Structure formats: C-alpha cells, structure tokens
Amino acid sequence: MTMSNALSAPLTASAMAFLVSSLLTAGVLNYARRVHLVDQPGYRRSHMLPTPRGGGLAFVVVQLCFVVWAVIQGSPWLGLLLGLGAVAFIGFVDDHHPLTARLRLLVHLLGAGLTLGLLGSPWLSLTCVAVAVVWIVAMTNAWNFMDGINGIASVNAMVAFLAYGLVGWIDGRTDVSTLSLIALGATAGFVPFNFPRAQLFMGDVGSGSLGFLLAANVFLLWNGDVSSVPVLLFPVLGMVADAGLTLAFRVLSGRRWYVAHREHLYQWMVRSGYSHAQVVMAFVGFSLVVALPHMLVAWHIPSLSFPALISAMLIASGLWFGGKRHCLARLRCRPT
Predict the structure, then answer these.
(1) Residues 117, 133 contacting (CB under 8 angstroms)
(2) Are the beta carbons of 142 and 243 closer than 8 angstroms?
(3) pTM of the predicted model, to two decimals?
(4) Total structural domains in the chain?
(5) How far apart are CA 98 and CA 104, in angstroms?
(6) 314 and 291: one domain?
C-alpha cells in the first residue's frame, strides 16, 4: 500500500470532521447569541466588543463522536471517552454558570484518572499514572490559561494534532493517528469563526478539552521507552513554556498565581502593539523553527532526546524573558 493510500482514509475523515464542525460551530454561534452567552470586555481581556463564547462545543462533539465510534469498534478508549466527556461537560457548565476552581479541578482529576485507569497500557506503572494525571490536569488548565487571544489555542492545537497524527502514522498507530487528524479537522472547523477576527470564543468547553486531548495523545502514543517522551512533548512546547514560565514567575514573586492576570508573553505582545495574528504566527513559528528541528533530533538519535528537550526549553526560556523585555521597551516607547 502506498503512502497516499494509507493516509487517504484518515485525511478524508479529517476533512469530514472539518465540515461537520463548521456547521456545528455556526449552530453554536446562533445558540450563544440567543441565550446571551457572551464574554464582556474587561481590563484583563484582549477583546474590545462583547463576543459570544462556548464555540468549542462544536469540535468537542465531533471528537467525542469519533471516540464513541472507536469504542464501539473495540478500542480500549472508554476511559478517554469518559474523561474527555467529563472535562467538556464541566467546561460547558462553567461557560454558562461560573464554577469554583476547586470543583473544576476535581473533575479534571477525575477525567484524567478515568482515562489512564481504563486505558490498560502495560507501560503505565503507578508512578507513571501519578505523573500522567498531573500532566493531563496541568495541560487541561494550561490550554485554558493560554486561550486569551484570537486563534492562539486553536491554531497551536492544530499544529500539535498534526504532529501527533504524523507520529502515530509513522509508528503504525493508525488509531491514534486518525484520532489526531480528526481532532485537527474538527478544530480547524472552528478557526474561521475565531481567527483572525473573532465572531465566537471557544470557551472553557473548548480550551480545556483541547488541552486534555493533547495531553492524552502523549500516553496513547507512548511505547514505554523513556527516551521517546521528549519527542511527544515538543508539539506543545511553545504553549507549555509560556504557561509554565508565567506560573513559575508569579509563584516566585509571591503573587496569587490562581487569579486572572495579563502576564503571559502572548498577552504582553498584544499589549505592546502586536496583532493577534502576529502573536499566533510567532508561536507557530517557534514550533516550526525551534521545536520541530529538536524533535527530529530526538526522534532519530534517542540518546540525545533529553538533551534536545533541555536545549529547546532553554531557547524557549530565553525567548520568553527576551520577549518580555522587548514588549516592555515597546510599551515605554509608545505615546501616552
């Protein structure tokens, strides 16, 4: 079977996911307008006009439908179905009626536990499960924190899903590859409604679910080889670096890290005059120029996988600190 034939079915499914998600997103937009599900502008927000939210429901439904189909076909993804469903549900409720951070965290922990507990992977020891739960919960919330400007969460998720789809296909994991490509297509169906100008925000139902599914991809693809872990982290490194460094900076400076703020690098970039599109492309550029080459090194030379990850993390850190200084300099030069 040729490469084109092997990829034709997943790519067709991805295209169908795009079409269905686009239609569903239009329906969610009408629903949000009808029930006045709207994000109002504010000091810590990057938009200037009231904008409907909750659009992520459309692509989550498409992703969940594929997982349901896979489970019916005998896939051991019942835990993923329950976990992703739980995260999507609590996000949907939170979009309508804000919930406490503690309740959301408990549901995220439950979702991660269900996903890993029912996965039945021989590679996941108790220690691995504990680390995996922390990773999935952290990613679920990190993607939510990073969803602050048009397109940044959705476009960067598309880049990561494409990378995981290719990794799965090369490794012969056509099930995970198809899941990733369908997630890519479904997310792409939402993007025209949100980027570069936003008619609709994805809301917590979308951002939390994207982070959860991206994190779950790491363990669906992991083969038990420790050296392969960095390869699976590179696709989300740019977003994780901004979220993680911002959190660390706030904790070390004694600030209340859990309250809303505007200290992510992407927020500083917008405040200093860059457009949403420019910021999103900068993060995509990091993935292509920094993360991808390091990922290829880690892939082809397993003994260099962790040094490659450290190298990419150091570059990300330098860009984060340098980017902050650059944005501050631009702000000082702007007329008051």
Answers:
(1) no
(2) yes
(3) 0.93
(4) 2
(5) 10
(6) yes
